[in-house]
Write a structure and sequence with these properties.
mainly beta
């Protein structure tokens, strides 16, 4: 079955960086578009970024564009999210998602606080 496992979250100070990873299994990862979404405390799910199956096309939500970089390694069935210049408003549980609206992992907590 589809399995998505996120890792790399943690507590970081404003201006810091984190790199999230998403290990995928149970489906044809190299032919699947993938996304990162997040859910801040008390808020709904928010789309963050997407990448097509071969990594040539990416998209970002306005508030993270220029700070976050999405990438993937199809040989490792893994997707990444490099998060730089982190802000307190980036605090959320981050989930990787298969395609638009597909299966999600269990999430990894990112907390940005001084």
């Amino acid at each position: 079955q589809v399995q998505l496992v996120e890792s790399g979250g943690g507590l970081v100070r404003p201006g810091g960086s984190l790199r999230l990873s998403c290990a995928a299994s149970g489906f044809d990862f190299s032919n699947s578009a993938m996304s990162w979404v997040r859910q801040a405390p008390g808020k709904g799910l928010e789309w963050v970024s997407s990448i097509d199956n071969d990594g040539l096309n990416t998209a970002y939500e306005d508030s993270v564009r220029g700070r976050f970089i999405i990438s993937r390694d199809n040989a490792k069935n893994t997707m990444y999210l490099q998060m730089n210049s982190l802000k307190p408003e980036d605090t959320a549980v981050y989930y990787c998602q298969r395609g638009p609206g597909g299966a999600r992992g269990q999430g990894t907590q990112v907390t940005v606080s001084s």
